[in-house]
Design a protein that fits this description.
The complex is a heterotetramer of chains A (535), B (94), C (207) and D (311).
Chain B: H1 11-33, H2 39-59, H3 67-92
Chain C: H1 16-47, H2 49-55, H3 61-86, H4 90-120, H5 128-131, H6 135-171, H7 180-204
Helix pairs in contact in C: 1-2, 1-6, 1-7, 2-6, 3-4, 3-7, 4-6, 6-7
Chain D: H1 9-40, H2 56-81, E1 92-99, E2 102-107, E3 112-113, E4 116-119, E5 123-130, E6 135-139, E7 144-148, E8 154-159, E9 164-170, E10 182-188, H3 190-201, H4 203-211, H5 215-223, E11 249-254, E12 257-262, H6 265-273, E13 279-280, H7 297-309
Parallel strand pairs in D: 1-5, 4-10
Antiparallel strand pairs in D: 1-2, 2-3, 5-8, 6-7, 6-9, 9-10, 11-12, 11-13
Helix pairs in contact in D: 1-2, 5-7, 6-7
Classes of the chains: A mainly alpha (535), B mainly alpha (94), C mainly alpha (207), D alpha+beta (311).
The structure holds heme-A (2 copies), dinuclear copper ion and copper (II) ion.
Chain lengths: 535, 94, 207, 311
């Protein structure tokens, strides 16, 4: 389908007709940009569904006692919310949408190395999602284990755990194949002259991410297979009644799921690293340091999984080893924050919506990261483990980090992707409301955790009431903000096109080509003779 | 198109490698049938690792390919080994 | 590494090095897939050393040994088939691939009898006998069935890959100028062998 | 903060102060710097950017300083935590049993309660035992928490330093009523505790109670956490209500077949020893675990007496 058209006029990727037209054309496309958009649209659907579940949970928690649902529904809801947000939104997240769309462009390639495999990854993603969703309607009811599927509860509960776990397994494969594809692409398809140290930092982030996807995901895959075998065939691995060790399940789960949090955040950091120099009109501060820190996060992040298990009954030795390693993995994140800040120094800052999102990202990411330090420290984690504090931490860093970066990137690359311009005033207003709501929603949870409110609580004691009210109100404010942001973008998409090849005066390769990009991106493969951010 | 220069291993070398692997297999079986306490497992694993290395280097061609593949394999094996070690910080000291 | 930076090819559809790199990366994934099981194995063996040692006596070393040899030979035949292809000797390539497939089949048949023997004794996942085993034995056999089963699945996948390759060699779609598929299926097959090299001592040769 | 309710509070809260303190300084510092840069180097104020590619000195500085700081944080965290691992020899031992969704504390003299009573200023060591899935025992005021893993006995200890009542939560998600798996710790001064301890151990009292039909049974049902799933007032919880249960006809599922059965002594005994053999229609199998280990025939006889009173 990618045969080079002979005509002078090169159709852009949106209007290009391959073998099929319309929807079929999209569903059979191997164009990395279209695949990026396929991910984008499907992901937005799941994200909004997850968001509505979040809102419903907050509504339930507005005061003690039953408000709008029973305990079983609530338990099913946070499980599905966690599964959706983690496996369907933030793990593919920035990498699958913007990585697919921009990685080949950023390194001066026509596509990824394996375009058909790329499409297959998307199909696996959709199939996985469907399987996860069927768990809601088939069998004995929605799974109610939490997204962590801890044994032995996940082996005992009557609910439809198998479907959910199978879905997650398939999603894992989708993620592995995407990572594999990106790594090979970066090894093979960099434009002439683009040495490794001339790659844009977003690409580097994806490179680190790819390796984590490749080396961590199979561990959780096999763990899920064992859970399935145990439930269906009765061959025992984790059930203590037959000598299994539930803590081993936790090890295996977190061997993946901790690195997975870096799968979520690394591409997000990469996107921010693209945005900051563009709007500071200045080359990035400490390119090499950022490259090294990306790889260091990927590497050290592999060995800190035990910090989720400080109270599980692990040996004391493991506990302090994991605590120490956890603190070490914070350093590369710190390096990035410092380099971003330093990039602003003596810049010529052009305050635009993507830049504002990036600044907000850094702020909430820091709060999330610092609360991570509280969790990494042994004595304090003992107190706040499995409380609302943890919930606040990961919403700050997952939603605040990856989520904010997702929207930052969307506002940054929107003109390139669609050749449309959104209304910046409304966008900024939406961001402002979103930001206020976000903090009002999650900050009280830090307090709740400190005074001892456990997580996954459908009901709570009156002593936790006040902060919960604040938090619920925050969720409404935030919903308003997000609604404004989304409506603004949808309206822009519907609006008329503009000639916006380089609206921000960016320096990376995507700004040298047309908006929307033509089918194979470049009329002629560029030859690169300088670093990525030469202003 | 592959842009690497092609190294063709002669048939004979494959046969030699195979013989070597078979001999090592026989040795493992023999060794594990003598009583050596905990060293049995160690010996078996060392031999298995040697066999694995041979397969990687010759059958899987690492020895003749670009270095990058070898480096990657080494890193992957090292990470995996480290994961086992770190896991055992728990089980050894419980 | 700078040497491989400038190889953007006009023809996007044919990049054998990329295909090979991709296969290697996939192999890493597979290694870690089994790696997870090796972690489980080592932990449970560490916790139940005696039970594991006794339970392994239920398994036949001879069977395991034969299967090991079969896989080693089949690995060699695949390697030879690649050499033959490089030397443009299609006959030997085809013969060697055929032998490999045959050996793979023998491996599976062997496995079938091995498992079948266990099943006959009432020893299969979820059976009454298995439920009544002591904890350590139970874990040993759960792992045995799961790991060899998963390995068996990989044998099947490998056979499919080699089968496709064989057909393509026959039709000439895979030839001495273009044999990435053969190389990559070969790599995959070696992986299957590699894993067995570790499974064999861990299940059959515990002492 | 620093309430001093247990011997671990001060070290833990110190760790909080250290980690959060350093964090807030950095958070405020970096945020202000960022805002200042955005203001000072705005396009309007600074139309032309100065290109700076980086500085190795700075990179080293901001690698080394945070490294030192996190090591400090690590140290405080570890220092606050490590005493939690070693209970003194002379600590009072209590077995803490958790099951879906209730607690049972067993003392050395055989007392069983669903509320944790501990003496003031005395080391208490808990053996944490779970009968079904993972639970976690959490006393926020004491800054202690440890999971209760089936098949493995975890340990916890503390010295309560202030008399009073404190919340005790289950913090590991354990199914439907996880959020109701809540009880209290009552810290009593030693003399009061001793009185309680002796009174509870006094079997004559229990015998006394046993004279009134159902009273002893009610105690058993309460301490064994049956009421987490079975109501006494007719409302439907996870299990069927106990109200009017005795003599009543129920539809049960036995090995896949439905049949009607009258609730009598034998059926109740079976329901308690092998809950999965007859599963009441409309309820899920596997929820209730067998109480063979915890209850004997005499206990069940008392329970039946109690159930008879619930008309
Ligand atoms: C995007 C995902 C993401 C990211 C990036 C992180 C990052 C970090 N996380 Fe988080 N975490 C989660 C997602 C994430 N986490 C999730 C989803 C859970 C809950 C899972 C569940 O149970 O359901 C969790 C849970 C979790 C726990 C377990 C809590 C518990 O259950 O008891 C811990 C414990 O150590 C932890 C620690 C950390 C640390 C130390 C970092 C560090 O990487 C943070 C580093 C960043 C900074 C430190 C800020 C920037 C630095 C500076 C501004 C410079 C100054 C710095 C210093 C002076 C050091 N996290
Ligand atoms: C990317 C990850 C992500 C994101 C974005 C979110 C988003 C939200 N989460 Fe999150 N959450 C998780 C990941 C995430 N969550 C995970 C992993 C868990 C753990 C699960 C587990 O324990 O297993 C969790 C658990 C969790 C809990 C804890 C459950 C418990 O422990 O008892 C709660 C409680 O309030 C919650 C709330 C919310 C809310 C209100 C949002 C909302 O997004 C808030 C913002 C709301 C909006 C922005 C609304 C926008 C509005 C519209 C688009 C219009 C349509 C809306 C309406 C018509 C109402 N989540
Ligand atoms: Cu018990 Cu939660
Ligand atoms: Cu983590």
């Amino acid at each position: 389908m990618e045969e080079q058209t002979e005509h002078k006029y090169l159709p852009n990727y949106l209007e290009y007709r391959g073998k099929y037209k319309g929807l079929a054309g999209w569903l059979t496309t191997t164009d990395h940009k279209r695949i990026g958009l396929l991910y984008f649209y499907s992901m937005m659907v799941f994200f909004l569904a997850g968001v509505v579940m979040g809102i419903l949970m907050k509504l339930e928690l507005i005061s003690p006692g039953e408000q709008i649902m029973g305990a079983q529904v609530y338990n099913g809801l946070f499980t599905l919310h966690g599964l959706t947000m983690i496996f369907l939104f933030v793990i593919p997240g920035v990498a699958a949408v913007y990585g697919n769309f921009f990685l080949p462009i950023l390194i001066g390639a026509k596509d990824v190395s394996f375009p058909r495999l790329n499409l297959m990854s998307w199909y696996l993603y959709i199939i996985g999602a469907i399987v996860v969703l069927t768990s809601q309607f088939m069998g004995d009811g929605p799974p109610d284990t939490g997204w962590t599927f801890y044994a032995p509860y996940s082996l005992k509960t009557q609910t439809n755990v198998v479907a959910a776990v199978t879905g997650a397994f398939i999603l894992g494969f989708s993620s592995i194949l995407t990572g594999l594809n990106f790594i090979v692409t970066m090894h093979r398809l960099r434009a002439p002259g683009m040495g490794w140290l001339r790659m844009p930092l977003f690409a580097w982030a994806l490179y680190g991410t790819g390796w984590i996807q490749l080396l961590a995901t199979p561990i959780v895959g096999i763990t899920f297979l064992m859970v399935i075998a145990e439930r269906l065939l009765g061959i025992g691995f984790f059930d203590p009644a037959i000598g299994g060790d539930p803590i081993l399940y936790q090890h295996l789960f977190w061997i993946y799921s901790h690195p997975a949090v870096y799968i979520m955040i690394l591409p997000a950091m990469g996107a921010i690293t693209e945005i900051i120099p563009t709007f500071a009109r200045k080359t990035i501060f400490g390119y090499t340091a950022i490259v090294i820190s990306s790889m260091a996060i990927a590497f050290v992040g592999y060995f800190v999984w035990g910090h989720h298990m400080f109270t599980s009954g692990m040996s004391s030795t493991s506990r302090w080893v994991f605590s120490l390693l956890t603190f070490l993995v914070a350093i590369p994140s710190a390096i990035k924050v410092f380099n971003w800040t330093a990039t602003l120094y003596k810049g010529s800052i052009n305050i635009k919506t993507p830049f504002l999102w990036a600044i907000c990202f850094i702020f909430v990411f820091m709060i999330g990261g610092f609360s991570g330090l509280v969790l990494g420290s042994l004595a304090t984690d003992i107190h706040v483990h499995d409380t609302a504090f943890v919930v606040a931490h990961f919403h700050y860093i997952v939603f605040g980090g990856t989520g904010f970066a997702f929207f930052a990137a969307l506002h940054y690359w929107y003109p390139k992707m669609f050749a449309k311009v959104y209304n910046p005033k409304i966008a900024n207003l939406g961001l402002f409301i979103f930001f206020v709501g976000f903090n009002l929603l999650y900050f009280p949870m830090f307090y709740l955790g400190m005074i001892g409110m456990p997580r996954r609580y459908y009901d709570y004691l009156p002593m936790f009431h006040n902060a919960n009210i604040l938090s619920t109100i925050g969720s409404w404010i935030m919903a308003t903000g997000l609604l404004i942001v989304i409506i603004n973008l949808v309206r822009a998409r519907r609006g008329t096109g503009k000639e916006v090849n380089d609206p921000w005066d960016g320096k990376t390769l995507e700004w040298t080509i047309a908006s929307p990009p033509i089918v194979e991106n470049f009329e002629e493969i560029p030859v690169v003779d300088h670093g990525p951010y030469e202003y | 198109m592959s842009d690497e220069k092609i190294h063709i291993s002669p048939y004979k070398s494959h046969i030699m490698v195979l013989l070597g692997l078979i001999v090592l297999t026989v040795i493992t079986v023999l060794i594990t049938s003598v009583e050596m306490g905990p060293y049995n497992t160690t010996a078996a694993m060392i031999i298995a690792s040697i066999k694995g290395a041979i397969v990687l280097l010759y059958f899987m061609h690492l020895r003749f390919d670009q270095k990058i593949y070898g480096i990657m394999v080494a890193i992957v094996v090292a990470i995996f080994a480290a994961v086992i070690v770190v896991t055992f910080f728990d089980y050894l000291y419980r | 590494m700078e040497t491989i930076t400038t190889h953007q090819h006009a023809d996007l559809h044919r990049d054998d090095t990329a295909a090979k790199l991709g296969m290697w990366l996939f192999i890493f994934t597979e290694i870690l897939l089994f790696g997870g099981l090796f972690i489980v194995y080592s932990v449970y063996r560490f916790k139940n050393p005696v039970a594991f040692e006794l339970a392994h006596e239920e398994l036949s070393i001879t069977m395991g040994f034969i299967n090991t040899i079969i896989l080693l030979v089949s690995s060699a035949t695949v390697a030879i088939s690649i050499t033959a292809m490089q030397k443009n000797d299609r006959k030997i390539t085809l013969a060697m691939l055929g032998i490999t497939l045959l050996l793979a089949l023998v491996f599976l048949i062997n496995k079938y009898f091995e498992w079948g023997g266990k099943f006959e004794h009432g020893m299969y996942p979820g059976s009454e006998l298995m439920k009544n085993l002591s904890n350590g034995d139970m874990l040993f056999f759960s792992l045995y069935f799961f790991m060899t089963g998963l390995h068996g699945v990989h044998i099947l996948i490998g056979m499919i890959l080699l089968g496709i390759t064989l057909v393509k060699v026959k039709t000439g779609a895979v030839n001495s100028g273009k044999y990435a598929l053969l190389e990559n299926s070969g790599l995959y097959w070696h992986l299957v062998d590699l894993i067995w090299i570790f499974l064999f001592p861990l299940f059959y040769l515990i002492h | 903060m620093y309430s001093g309710a247990s011997n671990f509070v001060s070290a833990t809260d110190t760790a909080f102060v250290v980690v959060i303190g350093i964090s807030v300084i950095f958070l405020v510092g970096i945020t202000l710097t960022m805002l200042w840069f955005v203001y000072r180097y705005n396009k309007k104020r600074n139309p032309v950017a100065t290109q700076i590619h980086g500085s190795n000195t700075l990179e080293v500085v901001w690698t080394v300083i945070p490294t030192i700081l996190v090591l400090v944080m690590f140290f405080y965290g570890w220092a606050g935590y490590s005493p939690m691992r070693n209970a003194p020899e002379n600590a009072m031992k209590i077995r803490a049993n958790a099951r879906m969704w209730s607690w049972l504390f067993e003392y050395e003299n055989g007392i069983k309660t669903d509320t944790l009573y501990v003496p003031l200023d005395k080391a208490v060591a808990l053996d944490l035992i779970s009968l079904d899935v993972i639970h976690s025992l959490y006393i926020p005021a004491f800054r202690v928490k440890e999971d209760m893993v089936p098949g493995k006995t975890n340990k916890m200890w503390f010295i309560a330093q202030k008399a009073g009542n404190y919340e005790l939560f289950c913090t590991e998600y354990c199914g439907l009523s996880h959020s109701y798996m809540f009880t209290e710790v009552k810290v009593l001064p030693q003399p009061e505790f001793d009185v309680w301890y002796a009174r509870m151990a006094d079997t004559t009292l229990q015998k006394e109670a046993a004279k009134i039909p159902g009273v002893r049974g009610r105690q058993i049902v309460q301490t064994n956490g049956c009421l987490a799933c079975h109501s006494a007032d007719g409302s439907k919880l996870i299990g069927p209500t106990f109200k009017g249960i005795y003599g009543h006809t129920v539809v049960v599922n036995t090995d896949g077949r439905e049949r009607e059965i009258v609730v009598d002594d034998e059926y109740i005994t079976r329901s308690i020893y092998e809950p999965d053999s007859d599963v009441v229609k409309g309820y899920t199998k596997g929820m209730m675990i067998s109480y063979k280990q915890q209850l004997n025939d005499a206990d069940i006889a008392e329970i039946i007496e109690y159930l008879k009173t619930l008309k």
